[in-house]
Amino acid sequence: MSESIKKIIHIDMDAFYASVEQRDFPEYRGKPVIVGGSPEGRGVVAAASYEVRKFGVHSAMPAARAVRLCPQAIFVKPRFEVYREVSEQIRDIFFQFTDLVEPLSLDEAYLDVTENHINLPSATLIAKEIRRLIKEKTRLTASAGVAFNKFLAKVASDINKPNGMAVITPDKADAFLESLPIGKFHGIGSATEKKMKSLGIYTGKDLKEWDEIDLVERFGKTGRYYYRIVRGEDNREVKAHRIRKSIGKERTFSEDVEELDWIHNFLEELAEKISMSMKKKKMAGKTVTLKVRYDDFETLTRSTSFSHYINKGEDIAETAKSLLQQTEVGKRKVRLLGITLSNLNLSEEGRFEQLSIPFD
């Protein structure tokens, strides 16, 4: 039985973008730093240093709200090329230990070290060494969670942040999950947490008392997920090669826009960039999605699908402009626009299939 137990590590960099900025610019160290957005309240927070998080600021928050919460915050522009470079350095460290690395983003990944390149039986020691090497190589800190499945490893990595580590062994899992506040369960957001508390579910122990059928009745099919995770059940594999399911581009404008001709031209430029990426990768898709964020931060998407694959810029642009007619763009000011092409030409094995694109 013990041979079948997996050893999974979840590595999560601490306030990654903001930490890189504080590393590279000494004047930001110890200061409340926000990456993304602007002091004028435009845009969205991409990352927040721990100093600014104390004021309630967090990623994905509108910059206007962040300014209200912490007027003294320092706003810096993202340097994604630098973040990607650092992320590659970190990923190279992962591959010293295992080929089973599943990146979730630039700053976090799962590693399956059940079998590893250094033949070390202790996932805990491997996680410690990875964190040490990251610090040595990048001068940044990482937190780690060690467990026997992905869900528990993800939850564990958040327990002792920043610059910490937690280990959940099979014999400790039940007690850990029963004592865990419901809001700390990965996959339970603030809205679900509020609903659960209204039902008297405050901890894992409370959640565990519910039957699966009752959870499904209250929360839909995700009720099955809640039923499993509170029992520490997660059979997902660490996937070394994640399949890209869509390609999209978007932009938050420095000033709100409302001129329809300008918006049409912008969508054409965006569509052409997506087309170039698609053709470079020999990809195409059937579903076009338009994303719109108005000046009051209301965000919506509109989609349409074709029976055939497309990857031409003009086809993507015309579809996006058609979807635009289903919105209030032109009557309301716009803060962000984006286009995504999905439903890609993937086989069941995740490989790109030979394209068959009609020529009109």
From TrEMBL:
Record-marked site positions (Substrate discrimination): Y17
Signal peptide: none
Keywords: Cytoplasm, DNA damage, DNA repair, DNA replication, DNA-binding, DNA-directed DNA polymerase, Magnesium, Metal-binding, Mutator protein, Nucleotidyltransferase, Transferase
UniProt-annotated catalytic positions: E108
GO molecular function: damaged DNA binding; DNA-directed DNA polymerase activity; magnesium ion binding
Subcellular location: Cytoplasm
Protein name stated in the entry: DNA polymerase IV
Record InterPro entries: DNA/RNA_pol_sf, DNA_pol_Y-fam_lit_finger_sf, DNA_pol_Y-fam_little_finger, DNA_polymerase-Y, DNApol_IV, PolY_HhH_motif, Rev_trsase/Diguanyl_cyclase, UmuC
Metal-binding keyword on record: yes
Subunit structure: Monomer.
NCBIfam families xrefs: PRK02406.1, PRK14133.1
Class of this enzyme: transferase
Name of the encoding gene: dinB
Any one GO CC term of the record: cytosol
PROSITE patterns (UniProt xref): UMUC (PS50173)
CDD domains cross-referenced by the UniProt entry: PolY_Pol_IV_kappa
Function: Poorly processive, error-prone DNA polymerase involved in untargeted mutagenesis. Copies undamaged DNA at stalled replication forks, which arise in vivo from mismatched or misaligned primer ends. These misaligned primers can be extended by PolIV. Exhibits no 3'-5' exonuclease (proofreading) activity. May be involved in translesional synthesis, in conjunction with the beta clamp from PolIII.
Family from the record: Belongs to the DNA polymerase type-Y family.
Organism the protein comes from: Halalkalibaculum roseum
Reactions catalysed, as given in the entry: DNA(n) + a 2'-deoxyribonucleoside 5'-triphosphate = DNA(n+1) + diphosphate
